[in-house]
Amino acid sequence: MKANNPIFSIIIPCYNQGVFLEDCINSILAQKFDNWEAIIINDGSIDDTEVIARSLEALDARIIVQSQNNLGLSSARNNGMSVARGDYLLFLDADDWIENNAFSTLSTVIFECPGYELYRMGYAYWDKPNGLLFHTHLPMANGEIFPQVLTQNIGPCHSIIVRSDFAKMLGGFDPLLRSCEDWDFWIRAGKMGAKIWSIPEVLVAYRYVRNSMSRNPRVMYEALSEVSWRAGRKDLRLTKSSKFNHAYSLEIAEVQKNHLLTVLGVMIHQGGIEEATEWYKQEQEKWNWSLEPEDLRSLSSYLSWGYFFRLEEIKVLLRDLSPLLEAFILELDFSKKEAASISRYIMSPQLKKLNHLRYGKLIGGILNRLNFY
Fold it and tell me: Other C-beta atoms within 10 Å of 239: how many?
């Protein structure tokens, strides 16, 4: 089938993820709404991505394959954007997939709620090989994404479609960023007055990688810091005027503290207690921030162990991670009793889940309400 004027262009960068690509494309082929094109960008893969992509391209004229040298995720997305013909763009990674009613639902919402630059879908984190659902997020807020977007990402790329002409006006993704390129993109959208409409229904899925050992906390923090710095300044990349595109006085110290604790959670999970402690103290001296016990909740996130809720995983966390957490907290000038209490506070979602797994929802719920966990 040849789609002359597609409503949706799905841009799929792929670097050495050929093993997942067929699942992704099959989820698009299964759509109830057929006015789309899928653009696979092979970003210099050295696995069988090219062979798999070309075989998928042969199945359907709506599937297009572009190949480039290994220039990175942002460059691949920008390449796809440059050839996309759809009215709306969805940036879907090769290991993601969409529900078969995603485009039919989106097309209905766009028709009934026109005038928005962005439409945001609910999404789920799956451990697909084991058929395990880790987490779902159902967005609710509608309207301008400014100023909230200056300090918090509005959502992962795969959960948001953006009007094509608006995305191209923003200038695409920044290839110089090694992480957080999506947040940087949404900040520019916010400064240009973008409005978002949210669909509180899971329409897209993210393949959850439960092992955080390959994540680089320093790379993540560097990118988070750079994007936060940009957020508070007039963005000269935006050529059109906007009432929101100027400098802002942000509580950058608090933002940086949250960023640092988030990536330190990854480092602690990797066992780097000494490095995490030294790094925190260096940044604390630089920013002169105060630290409250509730701040340390940021150590647990989807980047570290925030969505670990299987019985086996909880047991491992309690056995291996809890002592590391307490050791880290002790180094922050809390007492031993305080460190133990704060550690349990950080781990409370897992401890509450453990009550449910051990005693059932009724008894477990009662115990949790009584704070017996």
Answer: 8
